[in-house]
Design a protein that fits this description.
Elements: H1 14-26, H2 31-37, H3 41-44, E1 46-49, E2 52-55, H4 63-75, H5 78-86, E3 113-114, E4 117-118, H6 120-139, E5 152-156, H7 163-171, E6 181-185, H8 190-198, E7 205-210, H9 217-234, H10 240-243, E8 244-248, H11 251-257, E9 264-266, H12 283-289, H13 291-310, H14 317-331, E10 336-341, H15 349-361, E11 379-382, H16 393-398, E12 405-410, H17 420-437, E13 453-458, H18 463-484, H19 495-509, H20 520-536
Parallel strand pairs: 5-6, 5-7, 7-8, 8-9, 10-11, 10-12, 12-13
Antiparallel strand pairs: 1-2, 2-13, 3-4
The structure holds 6-O-phosphono-beta-D-fructofuranose.
């Protein structure tokens, strides 16, 4: 199946040009008029699947805009590329491998083939091993080196090996075991390590080294510090095998670190870090909430996968979210996208989406390496409501920039604290209403309105709902990558900084100081650092 992007620049496609003409003809749409003139708008511009309701009626679009966007998606072969994604095709062209994360959540027994090889059984095999291990730890049958029960877990990882499980553990705290606390260690700043271990008893602590490559500097530095700390406290190298397990594609490297290969849970080569929550990278989540709830997350993801694969583009939730983003970035000059979950549990969701969207689609060359003549990923940012309301919402309401927002809300809460939840939801609905319709008044009081947003509403933040949300945004990213013609599954841009840091670290460590190849500014900073460091000794 040929799923290469159309030849020539996106902005020269007739479907793009039609959207440009449509934008020029409609001018600045007015949400208040759109609602006034069309009583069916709210009921029509919404889509529901399983637990999620997406209301996208408060967007600056008409039915024609949506039809033209769907036409653009077809012109960029979105339906064919969706099929290719589910067929395990080598969509990650620059790394010559598939991006087959959907296989991780396909139900047992279903066929998941990469070039004729069924990987489904191997996926289920790793899941089963993870489950067995988690049950042992959670029941107390897996003990530490001194025979003590494991009560604390620390996931050591960064990027996709941190943000997904970190976000999900916080979201699913109501489902977590009270006997096992799971924490996350990502930063190379030793403060993170020091504060993390402060409250730990080494004899009761399990470290999950989560690294697809087992080569990431930050993760290895933290894992080594943790190993030294543990061995120092327990006085025996042999303790490492009882207190360290791994999620990695490189069992050899994990073994050299001291991790028993039986407890190195395979991380597939064909799963990108930021799409890896359903893989062994979710081990710390499974330890926290248990295998059953983890399976529920996978079930929710699969439900969204099935919707994405089968629903017509016009009623397809990830497609709609993706195309609306294409519209705002390409035709309405939006540079950023705000995500505001009205849920403390989703406090890490904006940070998780930052990597998912920006590392995937923050590209300026197309799949075949040609420079692009249009914008790609927006700057994704956000915070929970209501704290965000008292921080940056002023700019959303009265600032000079257009910032499309996603609001995420839940009909019910896990807590029973007074009338907090009704109040919280009142704020959520009020914000999207205020952004869309504004209010008249003196210049400094007036809110102009006409500021677009989506609202996602689900019954309760359950494991299954979380799975649906995660897969929704994963597929949104794929939709946008397809239209923009970029490879969502590589991240060459992060390499340069890593290489330079390795060089500078060597210059600092050996005391040679900055080499002549650095620019004057960087040389000056390194020298000043070395001097200041010495002065502090
Ligand atoms: O930031 C670059 C990156 O390669 C991410 O894509 C990835 O999620 C992260 O580093 C961690 O990589 P690993 O799991 O191999 O340690």
């Amino acid at each position: 199946m040929d799923v290469s992007p159309p030849s020539g620049p996106l902005t020269r496609l007739p479907e793009w040009l039609e959207l440009s003409a449509h934008r020029a003809a409609t001018g600045e749409l007015d949400l208040a008029s759109l609602f006034l003139e069309d009583s069916g708008r709210a009921a029509r511009l919404r889509v529901e699947h399983e637990d999620l309701l997406l209301d996208y009626s408060k967007n600056l679009v008409t039915d024609e805009t949506l039809a033209l966007l769907a036409q653009l998606a077809r012109a960029t072969q979105l339906p064919e590329r969706i099929e290719a994604l589910f067929a395990g095709a080598r969509l990650n062209v620059s790394e010559d491998r598939p991006a087959f994360h959907v296989a991780l959540r396909a139900p047992a027994g279903s066929e998941s083939k990469i070039e004729g090889e069924d990987v489904g059984e191997r996926v289920q095999g790793v899941l089963a091993r993870m489950e067995k291990f988690c049950l042992k730890v959670r029941s107390g049958r897996w003990t530490g080196h001194t025979g003590k029960r494991i009560r604390r877990v620390v996931n050591i990882g960064i990027g996709g090996s941190d943000l997904g499980p970190r976000m999900a553990c916080r979201a699913l705290r109501p489902y977590a075991s009270s006997d096992l606390q799971v924490d996350f260690l990502a930063n190379l700043d030793g403060d993170d390590f020091a504060t993390r271990v402060e409250s730990l008893d080494p004899a009761e602590t399990l470290f999950v080294v989560c690294s697809k490559t087992f080569a990431t500097e930050e993760t290895l530095a933290n894992a080594r510090a943790a190993r030294d700390w543990l061995v120092g406290a327990l006085g025996d190298e042999a303790a490492v095998a009882r207190h360290f397990v791994a999620a990695s594609a490189d069992a050899g490297a994990a073994g050299r670190f001291g991790i028993d290969p039986v407890y190195c849970f395979e991380f597939w080569d064909w799963v990108g870090g930021r799409f890896s929550l359903a893989s062994s990278a979710g081990l710390s989540l499974m330890l926290s909430v248990g295998p059953e709830a983890f399976r529920e997350v996978l079930g929710g993801m699969h439900a969204m996968d099935a919707h994405f694969r089968r629903a017509p583009l016009e009623a397809n939730m990830p497609v709609l979210l993706g195309l609306l983003g294409v519209w705002y970035g390409g035709f309405l000059d939006a540079e950023t996208h705000c995500v505001a979950p009205y849920s403390e549990g989703l406090g890490e969701f904006p940070a998780y989406l930052q990597q998912l969207e920006m590392e995937s689609n923050g590209k300026s060359v197309g799949i075949m390496g040609a420079p692009l003549d249009h914008h790609t990923a927006p700057i994704v940012w956000g915070q929970t409501g209501t704290p965000g309301q008292h921080a940056f919402f002023q700019l959303l309401h009265q600032g000079t920039r257009r910032v499309p927002c996603d609001f995420i809300a839940f009909a019910r809460a896990h807590h029973r604290v007074a009338d907090h939840h009704d109040r919280l939801m009142a704020h959520c609905f009020a914000q999207s209403e205020a952004l869309a319709f504004g209010s008249p008044g003196e210049p400094h009081q007036a809110c102009p309105g006409n500021r677009p947003s989506n609202t996602l509403l689900a019954p309760l933040l359950t494991p299954r709902v979380l799975g649906q949300l995660v897969a929704l945004y994963e597929h949104k990213v794929f939709v946008q990558a397809t239209v923009w013609g970029v490879n969502a599954f590589d991240q060459w841009g992060v390499q340069l900084g890593k290489d330079l840091a390795a060089r500078i670290f060597a210059e600092i460590e050996t005391g040679t100081g900055p080499g002549p190849d650095h620019d004057g500014s960087t040389r000056g900073l390194i020298r000043r650092y070395l001097d200041a460091r010495q002065a502090g000794d």
